[in-house]
Amino acid sequence: MTTAMVEEIRRRLAEALQPIELDVVDEGYKHVGHANEGKGHFHVRVVSAAFAGQLPIKRHRLVYAALGELMDHGIHALSIDAKAPE
């Protein structure tokens, strides 16, 4: 399921933010034994012009909005590195 989830996260972020860089990593292995047994833990690094002039909280909100219901069903924890192109 995690490979499918990585691809779904990637698809949604690419569609919503049209990033110039996008990396989605399943980090569940780092959380084995924690709540949800290490499943649904991801890290995203996304560079998008959509983030230009935005504070980090607004950037994170844009990521959450792009992921929609995945934040409630499928993603237990999400680490976000959201940057504007330099």
Automatic annotation (TrEMBL):
Keywords of the record: Cell cycle, Cell division
SUPFAM superfamilies (UniProt xref): BolA-like
GO biological process: cell division
Family membership: Belongs to the BolA/IbaG family.
Name under which the protein is recorded: Cell division protein BolA
